[in-house]
Amino acid sequence: MQKKLFSFLLCVSLISSGCLEVSPPDMDGDGINDTEDLDIDGDGWSNSEEMNCTTDPNDADVTPTDTDGDSQCDLNDLDDDGDSWSDAEEAMCGTDPVDSESVPDDLDGDMECDEWDDDADGDDLPNDWELERGFNPMDPNDLMTCHGEARYCLRTYDDFTFAETHNSFSTPEDGIMGGINHLTGLQSQWEDGIRAFMLDPHHQSEFNSEKEDVVFCHAPSLPNTPPCLFGSVDAFAWLRSLNSLHNNSSGDVVSLLIQNHRVPGEHLEYLLNETGILERAYIHELGSPWPSIGDMSLSGTDVLIYIEMEYEDNFTKLLPAWKHTWDTPYGESSQEEMTCDLGRGDSSQPVWHMNNWLNSDFGFADPVKASQVNAYDTLLQRGLLCWETVGNRPTFVGVDYWEQGEVTNVTITLNKMSHWSDEVPEHP
Predict the structure, then answer these.
(1) With 94 labelled, which of 10, 136, 180, 201 sits at a CA distance of 20 to 30 A?
(2) What pTM does this model have?
(3) Three-class SS of residue 272?
(4) What pLDDT, in 10s, does the model give residues 385-420?
């Protein structure tokens, strides 16, 4: 008993004198005492990580499960197997979230599995839309485009902006020598993306007034002057060329605004029928929703024929323009006079023409003024202003001297926008 007491007292004495030190606890022997060691058991997982992963930070033989080895335990890892698909996505898509070889099918590579992807092949056409119209939703090469892009096939006709030429035929290439409206004819207009055309059919004289004698021409309304003072264009040949260009395209819709004041309905209908245009005409019922551009194209009714003067007889394929559409004023002499106000027609209709040309002092198209009002920034800002003012996008942007300025680029920009307040895309 005395020896034990002596030993105890000796130990106390040695400790008190500093001759003998007691080492702090160090479970993993790393030289860091347990009170300061962030990984007490030395298993490579911090104490806090193990606690978050519900494993024992004091037992080196028990470590968190980490399937992909990213040092994040499966319990807290959103992608256990490290295959770039989250566990939730894999569960939804029916693949194994802890097997990196088991990944969802993703045809278009958009990280949305085919089972849940509304557009599995990534061609901008929804699966259901493709199936209903005979396309393969799993084939990105089996698609249609409208006005250059597949997504525009889904747009309704009244939610698209078309470049339009005023007196489209009135060009030197068409044989018009004076009072021209453009420098180049139909081929160039079409190639640049213009799909709306203003046309003036006439009979050249009382001696050429049969249905086979219809021509295109335009001249100022002057007393005692013939309608085709500056020359005329073979309307049949012009429209056949248009129909041929249209046949060789896919998914485009064409619109005609016809100033038919001097041609009987039977003659105009004959002209349109003989040139293959009439059979493509879409018949729109007032008040009914407009179809998509894609459906109009697929149905073969991809031409809208508007006539300025309504005939007394029933010509169902010739739509009275100012019942189905409206336009802004035209023929101003200065840019300051241009407005977004109603000129002709029914302003409650969603389809409308933004007329964008200025006349010279003599009433003719003016190339200098055209270059000003057709300039990209100028025309774009007017389009956005009128869009905001009217409440829906301009359906047509009508110009003289389309070559002066960038009317087609402006329409490309407008069509990329879903609302006038959207951020304006980069210049095409």
Answers:
(1) 136
(2) 0.85
(3) helix
(4) 999 999 999 999 999 999 999 999 999 999 999 999
